[in-house]
From TrEMBL:
Keywords: Amino-acid biosynthesis, Aromatic amino acid biosynthesis, FAD, Flavoprotein, FMN, Lyase, NADP. CDD domains: Chorismate_synthase (cd07304). This reaction introduces a second double bond into the aromatic ring system. NADP(+) binds at R39, R45. This is Chorismate synthase. Pathway: Metabolic intermediate biosynthesis; chorismate biosynthesis; chorismate from D-erythrose 4-phosphate and phosphoenolpyruvate: step 7/7. Its cofactor is FMNH2. PANTHER family: CHORISMATE SYNTHASE. GO terms for biological process: amino acid biosynthetic process; aromatic amino acid family biosynthetic process; chorismate biosynthetic process. The keyword Amino-acid biosynthesis applies. FMN binds at R128, A129, S130, G296, K311, P312, I313, P314, T315, R337. Belongs to the chorismate synthase family. It comes from Berryella intestinalis.
Length: 390
């Protein structure tokens, strides 16, 4: 299963085409749009989100609520297009009043992209470099999420810090983080603890008042995975590399840690690795999950726990220095309408990216054409591994 997305941030619409979806998978418009709504929310988002009301129109690949096995196309309208149709026209000439973007923002793709494609208007770059594209990515991955739900896998995320405001947690690597989904979704920063939520909101308010922006960290968790997904024989078959690449595909993600992550580097081996135990009913298990659900590039069958670090938003009220590309004189970077913090939204995007990789890992192992065949292959695999531990 793979996707291709297209669309400029202020163009008419975003498009995602998902190819390689098995036939017979139930798809719900309600679920797709719920994910799109979750991605739009979060304290610290800018005014654009009050213009948009993201909803996907499915224009191919689904009939009577089930996939056909043909490519699925999802289209999301950009409501803001109405305000940009002249500045973003496909064929008309540029309006006389057009204000080119010539003061590139440090930390965004503006300068390097303009140098790369040789444009005199950074908008040619930033329209696609914008994380607006992550809406189409979430829509595409909603197909993967439906697949995972069908095979008993749940993917969720929560925010663990914003700036220096942190969620105090019991060690989530001893078992699975068992937060209530409602506590995460009801928090304006997608953090399951009310006090930490308040501290994170305060940090965002302070940053906004100072013309600043904030990043943070979040965890993505997947429950219900069978052991043995992924592979150990080639670099690209390792689930670790696939998930890492998918998460680094999200704008502004600067770090990805599996389980203990960087923390493992300073501990002795016995405090890092998860002793193997046998439960006669459940099969092989572990006393802890410091590996975060992956060993040797494959799922262990324990919860997958990945932590991501997001850098602060590059567009600042209190703008940094830059060079005017017309005059070549020092000046201040563009101050556009912007998010102050988008960590909660990025966590939803990361869920989507992880879901896509995991769905593909299932398809690699259990077949790709038809849901009935896939379900029975998973059932017989589960039976086989149960006999290994008897
Ligand atoms: C969900 C989300 C929303 C974002 N919103 C903004 C924004 O409003 N303004 C901004 O300057 N950057 C925003 N960013 C970050 C930029 O897209 C990102 O910093 C830029 O693409 C360069 O990132 P890179 O250096 O990691 O490639 C957002 C990122 C994400 C994931
Ligand atoms: C539009 C979204 O995020 C945008 C991501 C973004 C960027 O530079 O990455 C810049 C802002 O764009 P605008 O100037 O139109 O407000 C954000 O709003 C979205 O997430 O739906």
């Amino acid at each position: 299963m793979r996707y291709l997305t297209a669309g400029e941030s202020h163009g008419p619409e975003l498009t995602a085409i998902v190819e390689g979806v098995p036939a017979g998978l139930k798809i719900s418009e309600k679920h797709i749009n719920a994910d799109l709504k979750r991605r739009q929310s979060g304290y610290g988002r800018g005014a654009r989100q009050s213009i948009e009301a993201d909803a996907a129109r499915v224009t191919s690949g689904v009939r009577f609520g089930k996939t056909l096995g043909s490519p699925v196309t999802l289209v999301i309208e950009n409501r803001d297009w109405a305000n940009w149709s002249e500045r973003m026209a496909a064929f008309e000439s540029a309006p006389r009043t057009l204000k080119r973007e010539v003061t590139p923002r440090p930390g965004h793709a503006d300068l390097v992209g303009a140098v790369k494609i040789g444009t005199e208007d950074c908008r040619d770059v930033l329209e696609r470099a914008s994380a607006r594209s992550t809406a189409s990515l979430v829509a595409a991955a909603s197909i993967a999420r439906e697949f995972l739900a069908d095979v008993g896998v749940e993917v969720f995320s929560y925010v663990s810090s914003i700036g220096d405001a942190r969620l105090g947690e019991d060690d989530p690597l001893l078992s699975a983080p068992d937060y209530k989904p409602l506590d995460i979704e009801m928090s304006e920063v997608r953090c399951p603890d009310a006090e930490a939520t308040r501290a994170m909101k305060r940090a965002i308010d302070d940053a906004a008042a100072a013309g600043e922006s904030l990043g943070g960290t979040f965890r993505v968790v997947a429950l219900g995975l069978v052991p043995g997904l992924g592979g150990y024989s080639q670099p690209e078959s390792r689930l670790t590399s696939q998930i890492g690449a998918a998460l680094f595909g999200i704008p502004a993600i600067k770090g990805v840690e599996f389980g203990l992550g960087f923390g493992a580097a300073e501990l002795v081996g016995s405090r890092v690795h998860d002793a193997i135990e046998l439960d006669r009913g459940r099969g092989f298990t572990r006393s802890s999950n410091r590996a975060g659900g992956l060993e040797g590039g494959m799922t262990t069958g324990l919860p997958l726990i990945v932590t991501c670090a997001m850098k602060p938003i590059p567009t600042l009220g209190h703008a940094l220095g830059t060079i005017d590309l017309d005059t070549l004189e020092p000046t201040e970077a563009s101050r556009e309408r912007s998010d102050v913090c988008a960590v909660p939204a990025a966590a939803v995007v990361a869920e989507a990216q992880v879901a896509f990789v995991l769905a593909n890992a299932y398809l690699d192992k259990f077949g790709r054409d038809d849901m009935r065949d896939i379900r029975s292959a998973i059932k017989s695999y589960r039976q086989r591994i149960r006999t290994m531990s008897r």
